[in-house]
Amino acid sequence: MDNSETIEVCQKQLEACIANSNNTSDDARVNASFQLAWALAHSHSSADVELAIRMLEDPRTLGNKAPTREYHYTLAAAHYRLNDYLACRSAVNKALEISPSCHQSLELRDAAVEAIARDGLIGLGVIAGGVAVVGTLIAALAKPRR
């Protein structure tokens, strides 16, 4: 089953929980919501990933349950997929507070830290290039004209 089929199955499960809210437990709805958010977070579509983040950040998604390691990891993975490495690092650190030895979370944190450093170096390069251009322009304008 590909990801779009997984998303469709998860959507139908959540819709069924909502439609049968009188006969469905809050846990079932929370689990269906999380499964859909997980599937969306692993989609190739950035719109799906953005929806996953909105769902995970919506307090109704968890109901009365405390956030789990899987919740924080899924949120971190979604942020990473959208190149929001600072938010990724924040969420994955929360996952590591719950489960410090989780290899997936450790690897994701390392990848986020590397991406933050790489982006920082690129930013410094852009700034340095801009300073060099401005310096050249100032020097050219400062030359006495004959």
Describe this structure in words.
With 146 residues, this protein is mainly alpha-helical. It is built from seven helices and no strands. Helix 3 (46-57) packs antiparallel against helix 5, helix 5 runs parallel beside helix 7 (103-142) and helix 6 (85-98) packs antiparallel against helix 7 (103-142). The radius of gyration is 22 Å and the shape is elongated. The N and C termini lie far apart (75 Å). The mean pLDDT is 85.
Short characterization:
The protein has 146 residues and is mainly α.
- The overall pLDDT average reads 85
| Category by helix and strand content | mainly alpha
How much is the radius of gyration in Å? 22 Å
Give the beta-strand count: 0
Order of helices and strands: HHHHHHH
| Mass-distribution shape | elongated
| Biggest β-sheet strands, sense, barrel | none
Q: In what range is the share of β-strand residues?
A: under 5%
- Gap between N and C termini: 75 Å
**Low confidence ranges:** none
Helix content: over 70%
Question: What's the helix count?
Answer: 7
